[in-house]
Amino acid sequence: MSLAEAERQCFERARLAQQPRGEVTVGLGSGGQKSAGVELNVSSDYLMGRDPSAVYDSCVMQKAGEPPSRPLYARPDWKG
Predict the structure, then answer these.
(1) What average pLDDT score do residues 54-70 get?
(2) pTM score, two decimals?
(3) Which distant-in-sequence residues (6+ apart) come within 8 Å of 1 by Cβ?
């Protein structure tokens, strides 16, 4: 796998290691039918208290065979 693709995939894994992600939906159908839904993503990395940066580094190394081009916390899109 290319380094760029590994970094993209592992970035998402690191985000889930930082905190769970979720979504709540509420709707009203044309017949007045109400609908609601909840989706929650919790990773085992989060539950085990792993550092997102360490998760990112090891994930990229495993997928690409080389370390990330920059540390997780140095990425401009990281909101830690």
Answers:
(1) 97
(2) 0.77
(3) 63, 64
Task: State the sign of the Cα–Cα–Cα–Cα dihedral 55, 8, 47, 65.
Answer: negative
Extended strands (E) in 1-80: 21-28, 34-41
Residue type, 63: K
Please name every residue paired with 37 in a beta bridge, in sequence order, or none if there are none.
25
For residues 50 and 17, the answer to whether their CB atoms sit within 8 Å is: yes
Sign of CA dihedral 5, 19, 74, 78: positive
One-letter amino acid at 73 equals: Y
What is residue 66's predicted lDDT score, i.e. its pLDDT? Answer: 97
> How far apart are the C-alpha atoms of 64 and 5, rounded to whole Å?
8
- How many Cα atoms within 13 Å fall on the side-chain side of residue 33? 4
Residue 34 CA: distances (Å) to CA of 24, 28, 37, 56: 14, 5, 11, 40
